[in-house]
Fold this sequence. Notes:
Layout: H1 2-28, E1 32-37, H2 44-60, E2 64-69, H3 72-80, E3 86-89, H4 91-101, E4 104-108, E5 117-122, E6 137-140, H5 146-155, E7 160-161, E8 163-166, H6 170-178, E9 184-188, H7 189-195, E10 204-209, E11 218-221, H8 227-238, H9 242-248, H10 260-270, E12 281-282
Parallel strand pairs: 1-2, 1-3, 6-8, 6-9
Antiparallel strand pairs: 3-11, 4-11, 5-9, 5-10, 7-12
Amino acid sequence: MVSRFSRRLFLFNLLGLAFASCQQRRKFEGPLTIGVLNYGGGEQIINQYAKFNTYLGEKTNSYIQLEPAFNENKAVERLEARAWSLVFAPPGLAAIAMARYQYVPFFPLVGISDLRSIFVVRKDSSISELKQLQNQIVALGQLGSATGYYFPLYNLYGTTLAEILFAPTPKAGLEFVAQGKANACAISEADLSLHASQFSPTEFRVLFKDPHYVPLGVVLIGPNVERNRQEFIRKVMSELPSGLAQEVGYVPNGQVPDYKYMISVVDRVSSIASNLQTKPVRLFESKMPTKS
């Protein structure tokens, strides 16, 4: 009798553990879609995130799907649809995601802490001041780019342009200028250093540098991820081996940068977005935030 009771107790405990285990899996199960920008469209991004995806999937009992976007426009579409569970977002996209779509920042990305937006012209251009871009053709980056879209439009407020050309990548913006299709383009200092030599013998000159530093990008988690699951994912990612975190480019113990100013610029620039496809392009309908 005692033996039979002990066996029943053992089986009951075993079933209880199995049930608890299933409950734990159900709590954290379900797919997680990771959104990243991948300008080149190559397969290297898949290899870059492979180990991270495996680790995160195992720790959270989730199916991990990587979904690269080839430019900022596509990324904004996915943010608007709340289609991405986790986003490795550059600054412009991060500001949009937080301000409009209730994404929550978790960790800072590895990046350039003193990144600035610049306007670039050909070295032989007669344009020497930003105000001389009045009635000129300017190449900007895609919606979502801090250095190529938001900060430049902020600095061009009050200007009437002949036309805006939207370059799919920073390199394409420089190409517009090199070919004479645009009088100037807006990119980052880092992108100018990276791509300028590829246009030799054409040389470029910095026309204007924005005084504000662009905040580091951040890892964001989406509003459709349940709150308890969010915190569990945060815990898992904060304990990620440093080598894996470095591979995908975030800092597990880093402080999330202040996005207050960046979000205010995004909000204000967004108020003139409906004008950008017109010719000429008048950039002076809404009051812009006070520069500091």
